Amino acid sequence: MKYPLKTFFKDLLSAGSSHSNELAESPWYEIDLFRCILRYRNPEQTFFPNDGIVTEMFWQDNRPFVDTINKNRYQGIIDNGYGSCQITRTAWEFNPGIPTSSDRVVLSMGVEVMCVYEQEGELPCDLNDVKRLKIWVENCHQKRRGNAEKYDLSIDDEGLLSIGFINEEGEEIIHSLTEESIDEPVEESMLPQIFQSEEPGRASIELINGRNWVKIIEPGVVSFYTAIAEKDALCFDYCLESIDAGVSLSTSPSASLQQKMQTFIYDLLATVVVTPSNRLQDFLKNKGIV
User: Fold this and answer.
1) pLDDT at 83 over 70
2) Per-residue pLDDT, 39
3) Kind and range of the H or E element at 133?
4) Are the beta carbons of 31 and 87 closer than 8 angstroms?
5) What CA–CA distance (Å, rounded) separates 89 from 268?
6) Which single residue of 110, 129, 220, 257 could bond 253 by disulfide (Cβ 3.0 to 4.6 Å)?
7) How far apart are CA 267 and CA 261, in angstroms?
8) Residue 237 class from Cβ within 10 Å (0-12 exposed, 13-18 middle, 19+ buried)?
């Protein structure tokens, strides 16, 4: 069975097509973030996870707004230096007539709004300064990796995953995930080039259509951060989905397909527009505060 190309990617993957024109015709995604309005061109989603639980947990769309003032929907680990709230998640299939499901190439995009959790003794951090944004991003990722390394992952003879960690009393706790399995760790050299980093853990500053972004690459994920307030930033992360309800998806696209995906990512980020919002002022006015 062949998987048909859909909408945006039908022309994107054909010879001689101009995907910039296709992106320009895509609908705007717009959401109110209280202090500002976020808009960007959002091609129609062409991949929908078959697992309903996964969809419910990770593929939410929080329009029409996210409260970035009270942050009542944020989640995060203060030790990692940030809190976050998902804005939306979407994905697209890059599969130009590929005959088998195991060769399906799916690129997903997650968009989050993030805030600074300053630790005691740390200097105030203004994310509008792109150099400080870069330092904050690197610190958050470093702390995240450090926390992840506290957990010992192991696989038993039946291929089941167990997680070991030390509790507050200093006791070793082993938790078995009886219905989960794990593949062998992915080597950096096995990842597509767009998800490989010459300096793991190091971020870079990039100017895309007049907006400063901080780019950082973790194994299998490339993330772009941009400031929207002194203590708030947006994060666009991209990764290749590896499995869908037991069906393996390709994570080794050809060099030409990688180039198309990389160009698509940068062209989408170039459409990002952040404008001031009056939602907070209107709310305070309606409450008689101003």
Assistant:
1) yes
2) 97
3) helix 130-148
4) yes
5) 14
6) 257
7) 10
8) middle
Closest Cα partner for 69 from 225, 227, 231, 224?
231
Distance from C-alpha of 142 to C-alpha of 197, rounded to nearest angstrom:
15
Q: Collect all residues with Cβ–Cβ distance below 8 Å to 139 and sequence separation of at least 6.
A: 81
Amino acid at the residue 61: D
The structure tokens 């994905």 sit at: 91
Do the Cβ atoms of 235 and 114 come closer than 8 Å? yes
Q: What are phi and psi of 249, to 5 degrees?
A: -110, 150
Which residue do the tokens 């400063």 mark? 212
DSSP 195: G
Lowest mean pLDDT among 134-138, 153-157, 221-225, 242-246: 153-157
Cα-based distances in Å from 233 to 68, 160, 195: 10, 38, 22
* 214 or 281, which is more confident: 214
| Full-model pTM | 0.78
Is the separation of the CB atoms in 147 and 80 below 8 Å? yes
